[in-house]
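User: Last request for today: this protein with nicotinamide-adenine-dinucleotide, please.
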Amino acid sequence: MVKVLVADDISSQGLEKLNVIPNVEIEVRTGLSEAELAEAVQDADALLVRSASKVTERVLAAARRLKVVGRAGVGVDNIDVNAATRRGVVVVNAPDGNTISAAEHTFAMMIAMARHIPQAHATVKSGKWDRKSFVGVELAGKTLAVVGMGRIGTEVAKRAKAFHMEVYGYDPFLTEERAKQLGIRRAELAEAVAVADFLTVHTPLTKETRHLIDARMFARMKDGVRVVNCARGGIIDEQALCEALASGKVAGAALDVYEEEPLPADHPLRQFPNVVFTPHLGASTEEAQLNVAIVVAEEVANVLLGRPFRNAVNLPSLDKDLKDYLEPFLTLGEKLGLLLGQLAPGALSDIEIAYGGELAQQEVSFLSRTVLKGLLGQRYGDEVNYVNAPALAEAAGITVREVKQPKSPVYTTLLSVSAATPQGRRRVAGTLYNGAGPRIVLIDDYRIDALPDGHMIYTEHLDRPGMIGRIGMILGQADINIGSMQVGRQGTGGDAVMLLSVDKPVPADVLSEIGRIDGIRTIRSIEL
Ligand code: NAD
Ligand code: MLT
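Assistant: Here's the final one, the structure of the complex with nicotinamide-adenine-dinucleotide:
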């Protein structure tokens, strides 16, 4: 049984996508406290949340079977991603599904604030007809500062252009070229806040962006500026905002998100008549909720079924082309790691992963994780996975280097892994043959050509006549069939290595018997 716990309201049409998981049990339990969530998640393989549930260290510690947390939306500030990474739990989100809804909500809020629509609506509802109190301002001709020019900020900027606003964008990753394309001006934060008639924030909430717009920033702004926050509570310092509203520096605010949600009933912001509020509705449209639920349910199913997935926030992102290119190498990488880990058991340090030929042109960090997963498997067993492998290596003081060697004289692509071990530096390398899958082509300085699969025996021995026959005889007597045999040697009569594939695991006494053959120096059972 595979259990998926759904802890927030998520579209049932989206959840249907989870039914591709065999024996899936979907349990929906919303509105849980931290303690209740920690209890409910104990036997869950996956946890699905929106922004209400807080996936804390305590919750993750209780979730012993958890493999994936799915966030039906963009922001992951309600999930302790570092704790999830340390525990090897993948965190996936649905980054694109609500972009348009959030951008449209931002615009609706900006216009509602500029024209006092909620306040005017309330007076008409209460039976009054007051046209004097609600004189607003136009957007056309005004300057809008957009802080955070990602997906939503960009859509807001496009809409602002259509409303004839002048747009200044601030984002460390905004290039001059992109700004030109969008018809906006790229600016530093200090400049953008100083020229703004309207200011809207669209960054994630991080250590760097918490209180990005604080009292110092308000002091730089024009008198009568209007501010919007439909991103995350805390990007604008609420106390500083209250002071700026009280002093008249800020003429209006439109807020969808708050430092504490739900916004406390006695919160000072509630006293200002020129603040427009919504209760975190940026993504609350039928379309967005369906989009994010489908995307996140598909991603969770992919993770649980061991299929490639795209939107992990604690793994390097793979676009489709790169994913398709790297996919066959992922098995090779993991097998090379497994092989080296078993050839050289014990303390490893200074791992070098070298990418030769065509592979050197690619973004390979995901592939390095598969190598590390294999390598560290000896030490950490099932505890290690693609998510936590780099963190486990770092915690163990193992340095990992990626090296790119565009020239690969023999193979079109060559993946080579070496590590400092108690027996000196050891190396294995492999490649992909068209149609024939992954092959091991090098063990230390010995060339071989072996399919890395199943039960294997590895020997280091002297290259003498009769050696192979004697090994074959001992295996035959133990009723162990040999599938293939690869020998690599430095020269006739010198040192050699052998990799034998066998149909079943080799018992320890059979291994010892082979190990006693004169001329065999090392023998190991290898599982790939
Ligand atoms: P995104 O990742 O596409 O964009 C975020 C942008 O912020 C990036 O371009 C990044 O470079 C920029 N950024 C990061 N730190 C910055 C800094 N210090 N200064 C300036 N820019 C910085 O994300 P998105 O899809 O545009 O969403 C943005 C945020 O909106 C989300 O993180 C989420 O918290 C929030 N959101 C809220 C709702 C809602 O219901 N109100 C809905 C969707 C998203
Ligand atoms: C998000 O980050 O996607 C939003 O906060 C949407 C939500 O979950 O309500």
